[in-house]
Write a structure and sequence with these properties.
Rossmann fold, Alpha-Beta Plaits, eight-stranded antiparallel β-sheet
């Protein structure tokens, strides 16, 4: 009797064990792969310093995504540079789980930058989402970049959830800013969520609002794979890691995939979801956000906006990606040591993976050797790139005078795009030059109206429109040349408005301009890296100040150095760096005056000979001197 009974018991135990294991496995699958209707993809958009990253911290705490040990202020700002400057430079994706009405939802959050120079990062984040939290500072109200980012989101048909932040502060104007948001969005006052991201007040209402108001992603799991690459990063051990959102289909570990635009085929060595660290998974389904590692080593093979599909069952069309980046500011980047040219190329390629708005082409300079002409979205972007090259790749570089792109029409009817003054044709061959114009939107307090107006008019701006948002805040719209805002416009605007003015712009086209090429000559030799195209009316003043600045920065030599600013063959300004003189007559303690004259004449001949063969070294800070001119 014992034998059969024990066998039956064993069989029952095995059945129970198998069914329990199956139940646990199915439970794991359900927790990892939420149905598409329980996925929400959203981003946080706002003007700079309105509290996006702090709000993201509170949402991570609410969903218990990170442990108390992992939690820190601005946890998604992973770069030291971001924490030091207090700004978000890169969009950061992270997945959260949240239980709502007994069901578990998967929330994919992308925290975005707020500065105008990083608007391309925002557009990439918006292309990967179905909804957005529009954060407005209750102490400052609607700002220029708030409106700009809102239009970007509305252009992609995103559901907007308005969030009023910093309501705990004494300077908060809650009711007044609510009215501004209602006027802007046309929503109801009850739709606006009032929170304090710093203290956590009201944050618990945001997650239910995301689930109720933002729609689930649309797509077909059974269709051929279509995944949109919205970012990528280089890892020295694992190659290039691409971040994507799946529009249709499913991607599994070990499958053969190909990138639609490049046509390259790879094996998906690892796929997973993005939390604070990468979390590997066996598969990623439609509507979810994840990453893929496939051992790609060449940066050119991964392009942001490309589509990932299967090799065996490819999709017929690529996803309509977001628009190509348009560089606003151009500058030359050269290695300090000429031997580092190839290392600099590799470093810029790796940086371009992580920042698709950076563009570059090789160029050479007589003064600096071989380097690259790089395109940036603005001066802050240029400064950040230079700093990242130094910190992440240990590349010490020289950056030339930044300028914008011009259209040059020759007398033979040709149209040339010129990014560098050295690429300008001879003056006799130029028919006319066109420069890019922008529409600038400035929101400021009415008490600074006169100062802001004067600044813009001095920069060749033309007032197009003014609109009083409230009795104390005015929105001014100007058209002005892009070249005028490249150097120090943003800093001056903040100074004259005591930090209360916000600024946003977009390029509207090209217009005729009276421009001249200003050359800097050292000892009669042209320094091409310091040449610039400038409005004729500003050339004389700018050339004089440039000579004065270089006189301060260039160290004295054993001979006189002439620092000159020239337009063509005409010298418009000059400064002289006096020679370091040795007192050759100190040993003459008596006798005839002719002894002293003989020594002085000998010294004079030596100085003349030295000047003919002498080489003037230009220090690195001289190339950025134009940025510091007041």
């Amino acid at each position: 009797m014992n034998g059969p009974l024990s066998k039956n018991r064993a069989a029952k135990l095995i059945i129970i064990f198998i069914s329990t294991k199956f139940f646990i496995n199915s439970l794991e699958i359900n927790t990892i792969f939420a149905p598409m209707k329980q996925i929400r993809n959203f981003c946080i958009i706002a003007h700079i310093d309105h509290g996006k990253s702090t709000l993201a911290d509170r949402l991570l705490e609410q969903t218990h995504t990170l442990t108390s040990r992992e939690m820190e202020a601005q946890v998604l700002d992973s770069m030291d540079l971001e924490k030091e400057k207090g700004i978000t430079i890169k969009s950061h994706a992270i997945q959260m789980k949240y239980i709502y009405k007994g069901e578990e939802y998967t929330l994919n959050l992308i925290d975005t930058p707020g500065h105008v120079d990083f608007s391309y990062e925002v557009s990439r984040a918006i292309a990967s989402c179905e909804g957005a939290l529009l954060v407005v500072d209750a102490t400052q109200g609607i700002q220029a970049q708030t409106i700009s980012n809102l239009y970007l989101a509305l252009g992609h048909d995103l559901e907007i959830i308005p969030v009023l932040n910093k309501i705990d502060m004494d300077a908060a104007m809650v009711e007044e800013v609510k009215d501004q948001v209602v006027d802007l969005l046309g929503c109801k006052t009850d739709d606006i969520l009032c929170v304090s991201a710093k203290t956590g007040l009201g944050v618990e209402e945001i997650l239910p609002a995301i689930i109720e108001r933002i729609s689930a992603p649309q797509g077909d799991e059974n269709a051929p794979l279509q995944a949109l690459i919205f970012d990528s990063v280089f890892n020295s051990f694992r190659g290039i890691i691409a971040y994507f959102k799946i529009i249709n289909g499913v991607i599994r570990k070990g499958e053969k995939v190909k990138f639609f635009n490049t046509g390259k085929e790879y094996e998906a060595d690892e796929v997973g979801i993005l939390q604070l660290k990468m979390c590997p998974r066996d598969e990623i389904r439609t509507g979810d956000v994840g990453y893929i590692i496939s051992g790609i080593k060449t940066a050119a093979e991964v392009k942001v906006g490309d589509t990932i599909t299967h090799v065996e069952r490819p999709s017929a069309t690529a996803i309509a990606g977001f628009e190509e980046v348009k560089s606003m500011v151009f500058a030359g980047i050269y290695p300090v040591e000429t031997d580092d040219y190839e290392d600099l190329r590799a470093s810029i390629e790796k940086l371009q993976l992580n920042d698709a708005s950076l563009t570059f082409v090789p160029e050479s300079s007589l003064a600096l050797g071989f380097g690259f002409r790089c395109g940036f979205l603005g001066l802050l972007h240029m400064e950040i790139i230079q700093e990242r090259l130094y910190r992440e790749f240990n590349m010490d570089v020289i950056t030339t005078v930044p300028n914008v792109s011009y259209k040059v029409y020759t007398t033979q009817g040709e149209a040339l795009d010129v990014h560098n003054p050295s690429g300008l044709p001879a003056p006799t061959l130029i028919d006319h030059i066109e420069e890019p114009y922008i529409t600038a939107q400035i929101i400021t307090k009415t008490e600074y109206y006169g100062l802001v107006m004067k600044l813009c008019l001095d920069k060749r701006g033309v007032l197009k429109n003014e609109h009083y948002l409230t009795s104390e805040r005015v929105e001014l719209t100007f058209t002005m040349p892009l070249a005028e805002i490249v150097f120090d416009f943003y800093d001056k605007l903040k100074s004259v408005s005591r930090g209360y003015a916000s600024f946003d712009y977009h390029v509207t086209g090209f217009a005729n301009a009276d421009l001249v090429k200003l050359d800097i000559l050292l000892n009669g030799e042209q320094v091409d890296a310091l040449s610039c195209l400038i409005y004729r009316g500003n050339a004389y003043d700018f050339g004089r100040r440039m000579c004065e600045k270089l006189k301060e920065l260039i160290p004295r030599q054993q001979f006189d150095i002439a620092v000159q600013a020239a337009i063509g063959a005409k010298i418009i300004a000059r400064e002289t760096i006096k020679a370091l003189r040795k007192d050759v007559t100190s040993k003459c303690y008596g006798g005839d005056i002719t002894r002293k004259r003989k020594l002085l004449e000998k010294q004079k001949k030596g100085k003349k000979r030295m000047r003919q063969v002498g080489n003037v070294e230009v220090p690195q800070q001289a190339f950025l001197a134009v940025l510091k001119l007041d």
